[in-house]
Design brief:
alpha+beta; GlcG_carb_metab_protein; 4-stranded antiparallel β-sheet; single chain
Length: 136
């Protein structure tokens, strides 16, 4: 797959929503393309309003840094090499889990960002979305 489109991400988002329902947590799932541009945001009923921006910024951060947002937590901790980077880019950089790159072949073609649960729940749902790309 060379490019993500709305039609390709809809089933991925549905997979994420099913996982969020299994966990019993309303979430927001956002997918961006390889340039960090929004393709789709899906807000489940009763998901936290703050999760809309967080999910977008998790996806954007994952594309911008070419890695899961959870991987940034350690390198951005107080006293570490990238401490304070979360204040750059107008505060868009998210340094906790829930953002995962979407890879086709060896190329990052986008990312998913999930927010609404605990960090581990957000990661679990994001992984379900990413796994759906493999199945697509």
């Amino acid at each position: 797959m060379e490019k993500l489109t709305l039609s390709t991400v809809k089933p991925m988002i549905e997979q994420g929503e099913r996982k969020a329902q299994e966990l019993g947590v309303p979430m927001v799932i956002t997918i961006v393309d390889g340039g960090g541009n929004l393709i789709a945001t899906h807000r489940m009923d009763d998901a936290l309003l703050v999760s809309v921006d967080l999910s977008l910024n998790k996806a954007w951060t994952s594309v911008a840094f070419k890695q899961p947002t959870a991987a940034l937590a350690n390198t951005c901790a107080n006293g570490r090499e990238l401490f304070g980077i979360n204040t750059s880019n107008s505060g868009r950089v998210i340094i906790f889990g829930g953002g995962i790159p979407l890879v086709s072949g060896n190329e990052i073609i986008g990312a998913v960002g999930v927010s609404g649960g605990t960090v581990s729940q957000d990661i679990e749902v994001a992984e379900a979305v990413a796994d759906a790309l493999v199945m697509a």
